[in-house]
Amino acid sequence: MKDMDPGFAETFRLGWEEWLALPGLGLPALKAKVDTGARTSALHAFDIEPFGPVDTPHVRFSVHPIPGRTDLVIPCSAEVIDRREVTSSNGETEFRFVIRSDIVIGTRRWPIELTLTDRGSMAYRMLLGRQALSEDVVIAPGESFCQPALSYDVYHSAQVAAAAPARTLRVAILSREGGAYSTRRIVAEGEARGHVVEVIDTTRCYMAINALAPEIHYDGARLPRFDAVIPRIGVSVTAYGAAVMRQFESIGTFCVNGAEGILASRDKLHAHQILARHRIGMPATAFASSPKDTDNLIALAGNAPLVVKLLESTQGKGVVLAETKKAAQSVISAFRGLRANFLVQHFVKEAAGEDIRCLVIGGRVVAAMRRRAAEGEFRSNLHQGGSAEPVRITRAERDTAIRAARAFRLNLAGVDLLRSSEGPKVLEVNSSPGFEGIETASGRNIAAALFDEIEKRVRPTPVRRKIPRG
User: Fold this and answer.
1) Distance (Å, rounded) from C-alpha 172 to C-alpha 47?
2) Which PANTHER family match (predicted)?
3) Residue 215 sits in which domain range?
4) For labelling, which of 27, 298, 404, 463 has a CA lying 20 to 30 Å from the CA of 335?
5) Are residues 121 and 85 in the same domain?
6) DSSP letter at 410?
7) Contact assessment for residue 355 and residue 428, using Cβ atoms and an 8 Å cutoff
């Protein structure tokens, strides 16, 4: 790197200010001050937060790439290569994280080191120091923009989201079962993509509820900011888990499934009311609380044979087949004697002990399997001894599964269907579906599809261009 000398053969010429790009950080246009008096290059960053394991530490931060525009925020992440003490031009010293990224100026691209610091009050979002400049670079101190100009307009187009680099994400799995197959698969897939995935025990979370700064604490410390939360909340802690999810939602974290959808899917009565409201096919269903209404209740569900389900049933438990009206009366009487809440539902004979599980992620069916009940059993749940095999679903079945997931506002849902003579009927919508059975049967990587959706949803989106007044 040399200052301008008339006798020096120019190879690459820079003025005291230049346009540049940091494509690896998702920053396609920045104005930088070229300062040979500064040794280290510096990038404007705020909300700087280290994360990840000690042996491969990362840092994430946000950037306002356009001076004076705090409404445009580009989230970034990078591997930490050092932490250094840096003295600024005004004599102040601070420890800064150091990262590495490719820089593009004109037709050239090369790697440089950058320190992260808040330059929000400065006219240039980046300072290019002498350490980043090679010997064949010529600096013309009296000139500006020797290399081709870029434009901030790129931040207002879909190109920003489309070209956004793969960021290291911090993802939380809300679960009490860190060793469960689905949880292990999510962790393994996330880490294989370079993300940091943490399993958080739902019951060890507690919340500071206030209007201006809602927080979630865990084991005595405030939880860090997560890019996404994947709820794997057990039935026994549904209410508390939903409260924790509401807190994440209030903070602005992307939640794969929100509290509203989780609660609705777990309440079978509410779930069937949602399906009915959205005109989604389901077996005829009835519910009542008075013991005097047993016969009418049976008639509303279409007479025997009937299925009687506890509202809190899961994995096929608490589900009874009553083949005659008398048997149905006995089962209903027994459940009422226990003061249990239950549904009475028409039994779809033509399904012949089979159902179809469709796994819906981000509004599309990513896998499907057919479950067959064990001999002598009507429940096809794998936990009840059923078997699974891949299946080709019809367009009507696909559309029904997608509509059902959308009705509950779930980004991840297991939708169970019956094939009836009247078309597909939804049995249940599961907001925390297991991965093992469907991955084994279909051969699909469900965890990968889930992370595809998460990565798509947490990318930065273009900000509308401000229109000057007057």
Assistant:
1) 19
2) RIBOSOMAL PROTEIN BS6--L-GLUTAMATE LIGASE, RIBOSOMAL PROTEIN S6 MODIFICATION PROTEIN
3) 170-265
4) 404
5) yes
6) B
7) no
